[in-house]
Amino acid sequence: MGDRKEGQEQNGGLYGALAGAWNYAATSISSLLGFEDLDVVNPDGSRAEEAHVDANDKRVVAFTNYKEYIGMDLTSLVTLPVWIMEPYTILQKVAEIMEYTDQLDRAAATEDPYERLAWVAGFCIGPFGGNERPWKPFNPILGETFELDLQANGVRFLAEQVSHHPPVSAGHAENDKWVYDIVSAPSTKFLGNSIEIYPVGRSRIKLRRTGEVFSLVPPNSSAHNLIVGSTWVDCHGEFTLLNTSTGAKCSLYFTPCGWFSSGRYQVSGHIYDEEGRKVLALSGAWNSHLDMVKCDEEGDPLPDVKTTRLWQCKEKPQGDKYGFTHFARMLNSGKGLAPLPSDSRRRADRAALEWGDVGTAGAEKYNLEEMQRAERKERERRKESWAPRWFRPSKDATVYPAEYSLEECPMWEFTGDYLKLPRTPAKAGEDCAGKDYCPWEYPDIHKEAS
Questions:
Q1: Which InterPro entries does the UniProt record give (predicted)?
Q2: Rounded Cα gap, residues 264 and 42, in angstroms
Q3: How far apart are CA 180 and CA 159, in angstroms?
Q4: Cα dist from 132 to 45, 61, 135, 212, 356, whole Å
Q5: E-assigned strand segments in 113-167
Q6: CA 182 to CA 438: how far, in whole Å?
Q7: Across the strands, what pairs with 253?
Q8: C-alpha span between 236 and 291 (Å, rounded)
């Protein structure tokens, strides 16, 4: 726990990468920024190719003063431009966890307790398959939501931005087999040409049939070559999934990428029983698959034992500008939907960026931020306090081993009120993207301003 706490600063990022996909001259820009000795190395071990770059390039100008933020949380101190962003919000990133819910359904139906734990691990590894995107998602507005209805297996999901300073998102999902809850309060540390992303949060999964509760603590991520070179993402460190009901656990190690891509993507570890003995060996790559095989107490696979694939990353679209998966594209589509007025898909800045209008996206982002400031001032004028609509602070103070403390990550719980709402599908062909966005507590003040 100590190494992940070092240098943590709260911000609105998630365990995705926080930079644009830039590739420009190492020498000229390093000198411009005051990093004459900055080493720019791609994951294959090659140095970034030098090129001539106009000093007026907006990317260079935007970063000329960022050296003063080394060691700090970059995104909480400065306003980042739209051109390094993806048309996606942090709440949508949280919803990406729902892509491989079939693994949770499989876990719920599995009788062997250790294989059951392994299938839960397969579900938890799934989101990493889309974690190579080197773009910054939009920070949610306070009270913003994102909802998802997976009718194939009855999953309903809702996330809400429950705090602005510090930024905290809460999410809840369930079907008739399991319940999933997450609180996400990530932090970062800017290191000059890279940024460390600490996935501060609390993820818990309950299987309805067995009553077991699982606690997840994922590894850290890094985005390299933010300012010079080809930006690339790595996930590294310890992954812990604890069965809090029995004490059995899954411990995986995400190997940091070394020179010439040594160890890149590699994941390995074991399922341990209640006494700490190894019973299953797990291995794979966090961007493609995870396998399970029975093992001896030394952790070596037993002879002539079948290997089971716990998770396989689905094929990704070719040539997608932002590196979206098919599932991410689905989450970003507003066609045929009538979500809450506060839904991320309704944001005008997100929609404009999706349509390729960067100028409008930047202007709309600024307008939303100003409206959020106006809300805060009006709240202060009325001497009122703000409260989320769908989540509330939890009185539960239980912190399981390896989890973040209450000071690092507060407890929030789902009220259940959202599930009482009737489902209201949109008219055929209707698209909510960029339309009628309203997370506001005082909508009338914005009408007056416009």
A1: OSBP_sf, Oxysterol-bd, Oxysterol-bd_CS
A2: 12
A3: 11
A4: 18, 26, 9, 32, 21
A5: 136-138, 145-150, 155-163
A6: 24
A7: 238, 268
A8: 18
**Token pair for residue 203?**
């993820």
Residue indicated by tokens 């990022």: 13
The string of pLDDT tens digits covering residues 75-124 is: 454 466 788 899 999 999 999 999 999 999 999 999 999 999 999 999 99
Residue 393 identity (one-letter amino acid): P
Q: Assign 74 a pLDDT band (cuts: 50, 70, 90).
A: low
Cβ atoms within 10 Å, residue 262: 12
Dist CA 307 CA 293 (whole Å):
5
The DSSP element (H or E) to which 59 belongs, if any, is helix 58-63
Residue 112 CB coordination number (10 Å): 11
CA distance 194 to 231: 9
CB atoms within 10 A of CB 60: 20
96 near 127, Cβ under 8 Å? yes
Degrees to nearest 5, angle at CA 442 with 436 and 446:
60
**pLDDT tens digits, 202-217:** 999 999 999 999 999 9
Between CA 402 and CA 1 the distance in angstroms is 7
Q: Are the C-beta atoms of residues 113 and 280 closer than 8 Å to each other?
A: no
Spatial contact of 117 and 214, defined as CB atoms under 8 Å apart? yes
Query: Residue 78 to residues 25, 68, 165: CA-CA distances in angstroms?
Result: 24, 11, 14
pLDDT of residue 50: 40
H-type helices in 273-393, by residue range?
326-332, 348-354, 358-382
Q: What is the dihedral of CA 118, 122, 124, 125, to 10 degrees?
A: 130
- Give the pLDDT score at 250: 98
Angle between helical axes of 113-125 and 102-109 (0-180°, round to 10): 170
**Is residue 117 within 8 Å of 241, Cβ to Cβ?**
yes
Longest dimension (CA), the chain: 74
Cα(27)–Cα(210) distance, integer angstroms: 59
Residue with tokens 């002539």: 304
What residue ranges in 263-345 does DSSP mark as E strands?
266-272, 278-285, 289-294, 308-312
| Side-chain half-sphere exposure of 195, counting CA atoms within 13 A | 32
Alpha carbon dihedral 25, 31, 34, 36, in 10-degree steps, equals 90
